[in-house]
Amino acid sequence: MGPIRGSRKKKKLERKLDANASTASDSSEKDDALDWWDDFSRRTIGLHSELEGLDGFKSIFKVSRKTFDYICLLVKDDMTAKSSNFMFLNGRPLSLYDQVAVALRRLGSGDSLVTIGYSFGLNHSTVSQVTWRFVESMEVRGLRHLHWPSTEEEMAQVKLKFEKIQGLPNCCGSIDTTHITMCLPVLDPTSNVWLDAEKNHSMVLQVIVDAEMRFRDIITGLPGKMSDWLVFQSSNFHKLCEKGERLNGKRLEFINRSEIREYIIGDSGYPLLPYLVTPYDGKELQPSKAEFNKRHTETRLVVQRALASLKERWRIIQGVMWRPDKHRLPRIILVCCLLHNIIIDVGDEMEDGNVPMSIEHDADYKQQICDVYDSKGAYLREKLSLLFI
Amino acid sequence: MLCSVRAGKAAPNWLDRLRSNKGFPIADNLDLDHFLTNQNLDNPSPSSLPHSSPHSALPDPHSDSHPNSHRRDNSSSSNSPIENGNPSSYGIITGILSDLFHMTGASRSSKCSGKKLPRKQSNPKICSVPSLTNADYADDKNLCCAQKEDNILSSNSDNSSKGGANAGSDKAQNARSMVEEEEVEDEKGEKELQGYSKSEVTVIDTSSDVWKSDKLIFRRKNVWKVKDKKGKLRSYGRKKRKQCSEMNGLSDMTASASKKAKFWGSEERFHFNAPQIRGKEALKQLNKGYNSHHCSGPEISVSAPDSSNDKKGNVYSLSQENGSYDH
Lengths: 389, 327
Fold this sequence. Notes:
A: alpha/beta; 14 helices; B: alpha+beta; nuclease activity (chain A); metal-binding (chain A); Protein ALP1-like (chain A)
């Protein structure tokens, strides 16, 4: 059966119309985006102090306008595909920008649902639903922003930037752990597993960052009662390293034929392993070891700053969360980490020129000590320290 | 036949029917001793004993539903006729019972076992025949039938259970526990985790192929075990396992059960505590462990050194001179 007469022409015409419509919609979206902020700033209640600052937008949403638009693009399909019947209290439907704004405000401020609902003119349940929809979308769409360096070139860049900090050669990352504290019912026996050494209910977040404070690997969801190195051993990163499938890249060769393999650095809470270098312990160290420790500590600041920045910016994971769903909290933490990386990737920090300096991310937690070490790790550390004689 | 008729409508007149079946007048003040000594001495019929049933070894799926009767039996098992030195009356009564219950019929048994049994007997005081105790009544299927026909011989189940609790207590226990056998098998893999507290958590690990997974955490003091939820593990409560679609794609899921067992077997790989990791032997163990490739298992078992911040001095003294370095 042949095509119906004139169908091709019709199709061409339809395509043209579609193209026109899409360009029109793009331009209208841009206009909408520009108008949206003016409209939004008029609509909000209780945010005037933040709006009056130099960058009201960033103080409210913790991201630049450029990053905000990029995030909207990321989640657009998910946030608009579903039957969007979210309404303001006045009956007006929430646009894509409204939804992203609500979610970012919730994650960034850590304010209660009721407070945010009041500020935005929403029911608190709408705030909750919109935020969760955003989290579900971001954890899929934004995951490309959090990955271990996949190519040799990418890894070479990471190593180069680490070496620039304090001269540690062939270093691929810095690892640390922080605690996301929660308020759980004390009488509930299931809460006990979350009770950490500092008598807080907490969930751990272990991150490995590159020299630009970008998260390259995270594991979260495990109880805060587990020590840092137990969490590390539970991670797939450790598994891959033990298999020789990670940190198995190019070795650095020296004139005396000694080699330095790829490794990451961590504090004393981690074991000394062939691929994880921790500082020397003790006070009266040899000069080379003391120098190594100094450089090691300086280089490790990137991960401490990254975690401090994460918690400072996304305050939903900074304070004590009131009885959170412990299956959902890891996903919220992941999305906060993704947003952290997106900010770096888009270049927000570079534009501002204000690199976060705070290194306090676990203020109430003491330094853990892990006594376990491996002889190959000790040998690697010795070789590194000999570089700083 | 007998079973169904009696179960249906014989309840009010069970004693009358019993008497008429055996040729006794339907009246009060019946001389039971006379009946026992004269009526049936010539036909003890041991072959019709319940224990001779070809199905006597079969487990009784309902045996668990009468825990009370078993418990009562245990308390009164000393009334066994064998123990009392009265084997003749024992044979007589068992013969009567075998006639009453028709215990050799397979279809009967299955039919009876399909019915729900009353939890309590309607007239427990009527039958005060201690001689009914017999180990053979521990047979589960017969137990079932006896209880089913408690309107005929109201305390049959009681008495038969007495025997089960006495001479054949092991058999009865086994039969009862066979219902739970499946549970035991299911929990076999979890035996080593007994005494551990279990928590279910959602872990996000971006190094995994599937970055989000449900895990089970077992903890006993400072010993932790982390397992994928999808494994052979089942919950202690025997709840139906929830199929998580996300878990189906887990790389860890491809690990076979034997592999899992292997990794569990490598528990010593991580199973250190503070005293163990002191000294040269501990060092050897650690070094051996870290050179091992078994640490990539889906489960991790770790004994955590206390996260106290007091550094244990000179726990590990490693120097280039001692040749410990691995070039």
